[in-house]
């Protein structure tokens, strides 16, 4: 093999290897959200918060989800993942449960304890 053919072979191999590395890196970057599972953040109410009126608004943000529920009742998010639901609290102590699931079955649950008096 001449040195020209050898150099061309190594250059071609290097370009193919670089292409495979770039494509693999991009695929790993894009699949990061799938591997992390659902993310759930509750903005309000705060845990242990006291209310003097029975109506309360539960709001927060959910990412990487396929389903979200509040006290086992399905709720919906907007296109940015923000949700906001109004509830009437019973008198006394209440636990609010927000549960989010992704399409692979991973689940995250957030609970907030509130008191209406």
Protein described:
The chain has helices at 3-30, 32-36; strands spanning 39-44, 49-51, 55-63, 67-70, 73-74, 82-88, 92-101, 107-116. It is of the alpha+beta class and 117 residues long. The strands form two sheets. Strands 2-8-7-4-5 form a five-stranded mixed sheet, with no helix packed on it. A three-stranded antiparallel sheet has the order 1-3-6, with no helix packed on it. The protein is rod-shaped, with a radius of gyration of 25 Å.
Determine the structural class based on helices, strands and strand pairing: alpha+beta
The Cα radius of gyration reads: 25 Å
Query: What's the N-to-C terminus distance?
Result: 89 Å
The proportion of strand residues reads 35-45%
* Count of β-strands: 8
Number of helices: 2
Largest sheet: 5 strands, mixed
The shape is rod-shaped
Q: What is the N-to-C succession of helices and strands? A: HHEEEEEEEE
**Mean residue pLDDT:** 91
């Amino acid at each position: 093999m001449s040195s020209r053919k050898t150099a061309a072979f190594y250059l071609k191999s290097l370009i193919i290897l670089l292409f495979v590395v770039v494509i693999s890196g991009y695929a790993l970057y894009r699949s990061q959200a799938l591997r992390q599972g659902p993310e759930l953040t509750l903005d309000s109410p705060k845990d242990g918060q006291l209310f003097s009126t029975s109506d309360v608004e539960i709001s927060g943000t959910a990412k990487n989800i396929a389903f979200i529920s509040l006290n086992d009742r399905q709720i919906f998010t907007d296109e940015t993942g923000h949700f906001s639901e109004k509830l009437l609290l019973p008198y006394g102590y209440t636990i609010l449960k927000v549960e989010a699931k992704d399409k692979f079955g991973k689940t995250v649950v957030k609970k907030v304890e509130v008191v209406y008096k």
